[in-house]
Amino acid sequence: MNFIPPVFISHGSPMLLLEPGRSGPAWQQLAHDLPRPRAILAVSAHWTTTAPAVSAAAQPETIHDFYGFPQPLYEFHYRPPGATDLAAEIGQLIPGIAVDRQRGLDHGAWSPLRTMYPAADVPVIQLAVMPQASAEDHYRLGQMLQPLTRQGVLVLASGGLTHNLRDIVADAADGEALPYVREFRDWFVDALVRHDVPLLLDYRRQAPHAARAHPSAEHLLPLYVALGAAGENAAVRTAYRDSQLGALALDAFVFDAAPA
Length: 260
Fold this sequence. Notes:
The protein is of the alpha/beta class. It has a single domain (7-256), classed as LigB-like (Protocatechuate 4,5-dioxygenase, Chain B, 3-Layer(aba) Sandwich). The protein contains 9 helices and 10 strands. The chain has helices at residues 23-33, 84-93, 107-116, 135-144, 179-193, 197-201, 203-206, 210-213, 221-230, and strands at residues 7-10, 39-48, 53-55, 98-100, 124-129, 153-159, 235-240, 243-244, 248-249, 252-256. Helix 2 (84-93) links the parallel strand 3 (53-55) and strand 4 (98-100). Helix 4 (135-144) runs parallel beside helix 9 (221-230). The longest helix is centred in the last third of the chain and has 15 residues, at 179-193.
């Protein structure tokens, strides 16, 4: 099958489900531009474990793992089939990986997928992230998953290019970003475009305002899985760039295969 480039999406606030703004059409266009996958491996910031884990529910439930939002958000459901065969393939690629046969889809997975594939007809499972592990650990995990990208699987990493909820500006206009958010984003995008993997893996020490942009790492770690899955010297392009609530950079990236 043809190569399907891994993707990183900043899923933003759950309110994007009710007020999609510019993000909704951008996610729809992204799905339109990608080859149709046979299955999706969603790498969500909202499933955290201490060791590698993959879900394998035959019919994943919709997990409403957010609090204090309007009631209509809790009435959304997204019910694609699971992909137990894909979970088995991942078990071959990552020996010893834990398999959770009950885990449903958290909002880091289903909120963008509900917009990208609204018919819910593409099988989906999830891969956990490990906040205690390093960016390099997740990059290496992505490298082990690289064969899937040539077998019709979309590796959809879902997190946030920046994610500091303490810095949210409730009345910020869409597109408006705090200065440190812009500086961190510019540094990170430049390193991605240059494919400077050693620098990216050391972002915690090298990037401006890294600790403020990510007080905890779970929203950035999915990106490293996508980066590793794309292979050596993959070309990175920005599919979407926006900001929400001042502190949330909503960038989305496609990790295209390196030119032959």
